[in-house]
Design goal:
Elements: H1 5-24, E1 37-45, E2 56-60, E3 73-74, E4 76-78, E5 81-89, E6 93-100, E7 105-108, E8 118-121, E9 126-131, E10 134-135
Parallel strand pairs: 1-9
Antiparallel strand pairs: 1-5, 2-3, 2-6, 4-5, 6-7, 6-8, 7-10
Length: 143
């Protein structure tokens, strides 16, 4: 195909301009790296004497769980269980404590001593279960 000089002069700048626009729009750049996340369901069984109107809170190491401080991540009551769903990074090691947050009552062992922190690694979509033996006295809460 042979273009006349006048047609060449008319179309060449347009084709060059479109090429520059496409290159400037990121058409050549690689996509940003993705950091996979998983859906984690917390399923917490509480003592039978837990009042219906309290809120159970997960205070954990990940920012979506409060980053170790109040207010944490609130669970919803479902009969004798409290449940909630959160997205966490795959491969992350997570630790957490459970609290009743109306007066910041901590989780205790059956003997009445402070319960150890719960921990797990996020391996993919998963359910984390915990059973609270009893609640402590109101206090200052997590810091």
């Amino acid at each position: 195909m042979n273009l006349s000089p006048s047609l060449r002069a008319k179309w060449f700048p347009r084709v060059s301009l479109v090429s520059l626009l496409l290159a400037g729009c990121g058409a050549i750049e690689p996509p940003p790296p993705s950091h996979p996340h998983a859906t984690v369901i917390f399923d917490v069984t509480v003592p039978a004497d837990t009042p219906d109107n309290v809120v159970v809170t997960v205070v954990g190491s990940d920012p979506s769980l409060g980053g170790g401080a109040a207010p944490g991540f609130r669970l919803r009551r479902q009969e004798t269980h409290y449940m909630g769903t959160v997205r966490l990074p795959v491969g992350e090691e997570v630790s957490f404590e459970l609290w009743v947050d109306e007066a910041w009552r901590p989780e205790l062992t059956a003997e009445g001593s402070p319960a150890p922190r719960h921990s797990f690694q996020v391996d993919g979509d998963m359910t984390v279960t915990a059973t609270v033996e009893r609640w402590g006295e109101p206090g200052q809460g997590p810091r």
